[in-house]
Design a protein that fits this description.
Largest sheet: 10 strands, antiparallel
Low-confidence stretches: none
Number of strands: 22
Structural class: mainly beta
Number of helices: 1
CATH architecture of the largest domain: Sandwich
CATH topology of the largest domain: Tumour Suppressor Smad4
Distance between the termini: 17 Å
Helix content: under 10%
Number of domains: 2
Strand content: over 45%
Shape: elongated
Strand order of the largest sheet: 2-1-22-21-7-19-9-10-13-14
């Protein structure tokens, strides 16, 4: 790490939400991972050797660049955010993938045999789906999204995870607005995180989930 005066820091956030160790950032950039060759090293099995880089910008700001393609870097939402197809979301302990449906998938066809329609649940025209991503890389609990809003929570909502103590009662919502999906945090205690797919500028107070580490970005 550079011997220049630090220009910002990452504050480790403890499990109870309190502040932990302060990690100063100095020089043109700082890399983070579980290798001894990076500026900020953490003994974390979910981190790659060189997992992410934080660069100082000439304008006085900073940006974070994800370098790991397996577990990635997540940033807490500060506002309602448009979701791209295949976006990955961290809500409590649940890792979810959003997919927007093609028109051929969103309009189900009713089965008929010999001119008789099959009786069943009402057919709903879905616009998207969320899938729970497992540590094995597998997928389960695929849920289709329809209507104006689908809520995820621990006690209430359309998709409920009752055994996840890190979820709020009503945690987040997927909303269909102007032919696009918006992800909205509902004032949850632990926040809703979106995986970054490209370099992103950082603002004071940004929360980052990197491996099993939680940080708050603070410029000096």
């Amino acid at each position: 790490m550079s011997t220049e005066p630090p220009w910002a820091c990452l504050v480790s956030v403890n499990r109870d939400g309190s502040d932990g160790v302060v990690h100063d950032l100095s020089g043109d950039y700082v890399e983070l991972g579980n290798s001894g060759s990076v500026g900020l090293r953490f003994d974390d099995p979910y981190l790659a050797a060189c997992h992410a880089r934080i660069e100082r910008l000439g304008t006085g700001g900073a940006r974070i660049i994800p370098l790991d393609g397996l577990n990635g870097v997540f940033r807490r939402l500060r506002q309602d955010t448009k979701l791209a197809d295949a976006a990955v979301i961290l809500i409590g302990r649940e890792l979810l993938r959003y997919n927007q449906l093609r028109s051929s998938e969103s309009k189900p066809t009713q089965l008929t045999q010999h001119g008789v329609s099959l009786f069943g649940s009402p057919m709903r025209q879905a616009w998207g789906r969320i899938s729970q991503v497992l540590p094995s890389g597998g997928i389960r609990d695929v849920r289709h999204l329809y209507g104006d809003e689908m809520v995820v929570g621990r006690e209430e909502g359309d998709v409920v995870f009752r055994d996840d103590e890190f979820l709020s009662r009503r945690h987040a919502a997927f909303r269909w607005q102007n032919e696009q999906c918006m992800l909205c945090d509902l004032g949850s205690s632990n926040g809703t995180f979106l995986r970054l797919t490209e370099p992103a500028n950082l603002s004071e107070g940004d929360f980052l989930r990197i491996g099993d580490q939680m940080f708050r970005y603070k410029p000096y």
